Amino acid sequence: MAKSRNSKGSARLIRRLVHDLHAYVPGEQPKIKGLIKLNTNENPYPPSPKVLAAVRAAVDGRLRLYPNPTAEKLRAKLAKLHRCQPENILVGNGSDEVLALATRTFVEVAENTKRGARRDSRTVVQYFTPSYSLYPVLVDIHGAVKNAVPLNADFTMPDVAALKRGKVWDFNAALTLVTTPNAPGGRGYATAQLDKLCRAQNGVVVLDEAYVDFADAHAMALALKHPHVLVARTFSKAYSLCFQRVGYFVGHRDLIAALDKIRDSYNVNGLGQIAAEATLDDLKYYRAGFKKIVETRTWLTRELTRLGFRVLPSQTNFILAKPPLHPAKTWLQALRERKLLVRWFSAPEVTAYLRITIGTPTEAKALVEAVREIL
Amino acid sequence: MAKSRNSKGSARLIRRLVHDLHAYVPGEQPKIKGLIKLNTNENPYPPSPKVLAAVRAAVDGRLRLYPNPTAEKLRAKLAKLHRCQPENILVGNGSDEVLALATRTFVEVAENTKRGARRDSRTVVQYFTPSYSLYPVLVDIHGAVKNAVPLNADFTMPDVAALKRGKVWDFNAALTLVTTPNAPGGRGYATAQLDKLCRAQNGVVVLDEAYVDFADAHAMALALKHPHVLVARTFSKAYSLCFQRVGYFVGHRDLIAALDKIRDSYNVNGLGQIAAEATLDDLKYYRAGFKKIVETRTWLTRELTRLGFRVLPSQTNFILAKPPLHPAKTWLQALRERKLLVRWFSAPEVTAYLRITIGTPTEAKALVEAVREIL
Questions:
Q1: Does the beta carbon of B272 lie under 8 angstroms from any beta carbon of chain A?
Q2: Nearest CA-CA distance, residue A306 and chain B, Å
């Protein structure tokens, strides 16, 4: 009976699967004032003044009403942008939500086929390491099976022949998640190579293009060509809208319809929809910002390289850089003491590196100054 | 190979569970201007001017940053309001999200124990009918087992003795969802009766208090007393914030910690957090609105009763009313022709009724006028 229950008894109420989970740790959102925040790949430039004006103008009595449950206007605008139909688009509460929906739509739960059982590809989510650190968390939450396959040592992607030789890659995996350009590596992958990988896969492939606006090429054509390929995009990074949580999938209408069935019916908040719509009406503003960020990336890469860092070539709004002299974790701390917040991951493939978001030129200069001091 | 796939082939890519789902149909958000919208239980009064000012003031460069991932300030304010700790509170993207999280945290998936297999209470979500029509949808999405048990004919709740006699209620169900006050019935349930039900349950009980601000009593004490009881609340209805999607659970810290593990890390948008925080600073404004709505409810109940409707006693911001002469569906259409949008459900227990949101006095008068015309 409830009366006799104590805190210890609560474990009985919670699924074993959930009880055993470790929660995802997002990048720090610091409360200390004056920190230069180069840790979570936010755009250093604010949203377009037109976007801010559109959102402000919408803050009125309409907040009492439900938002459009299918983000109808936003999907129409996105369809126009990507030259497809609204039925090819699913909008989510950030791209994190659409990624989570993908695991739950395409991947069977493996709870009952624990250790020792023969692996069933229908329960497998596969991805390269390193890539977006949320993927294994999503797989664990869903109770599916992880197949984490290393990228090449220089963070380029193994080609299909190499994956076949390696025998670890699962060409029948229910879901394959590819961060392209890669995070935290920063490398871009050629559309031709991604196309070959997609063609070789029998399950669903998600090309997670969170950072693609900072790259030379994108692979949207693959989502519109292949019935088993989805491209994930977000308004968070390139479009300075982290705060309002808007991301989306583009892909075949059958996949989109399936994802839509398990979506919360009002998953995208109203002001987020309005902000995203206004963003699409002012892309010119954002493209000017991408250009500045790419220029700053070039400058920062050169400066840090001069100072002894090994900087990987980046197609994103961050760089992955191996610092000289001290371990990366020591650098993390030393930079923080100088009010510069960057990101370090404990995963073995990247533990020697710092991931540094490209900020404004002023922020990049402050980073280089701090590095000089530490050296 | 991908090349040979066609639209028909996509079924293979989608879980059978999802493929077989029917999507939840939310209440219509009409595009026609001039309709009086009494169909989705929104508050007819706008958010407090202070809330609107706070949200407007926050629409600036900070939109580029991630929101607080744990809704820290909002949880602190809610904890103060409910006299508990922030660890007792989980904030979600509307209360729909926290309800979905509950199914996934507390209920085992039953996919592998289909028809014919002995029922395992760990896979069971149970609720009364009628109640919130989203519940069966959430159960189906999760692949769990529904145990839908009828309320009494007058929509009062069967007591524990009656549930025991009935033999259909499952006292070991992993999750029990109770809409209190009931929707779409409108009835309130005494805390003493809810307490007895909670004490008799061995699984988690969610008291879904979406409409409780329009009722004479609430059962928050039960969530703070029992380690297996959660109370769900929302800022949508009473606090005029449907647009911004903020709902929450209050309960034992172990249950909250488990739910937190499977939550998207940035599930609550930033402007929604700010709006909800400002709301809690101006509760007086909202309480004045609740009083007006309760007065209008009393007036509308009396008027419709005079006109031959059978109106159930309501503790919410809507009434369930059985119209005279014509079937409810005919009334739905006739009212719509007169620009009044109400809600009708096809579920057999309520198919004879209309659910009518309590609007402003002017809206209620317009409804009564339209009813007179139709009669």
A1: yes
A2: 31
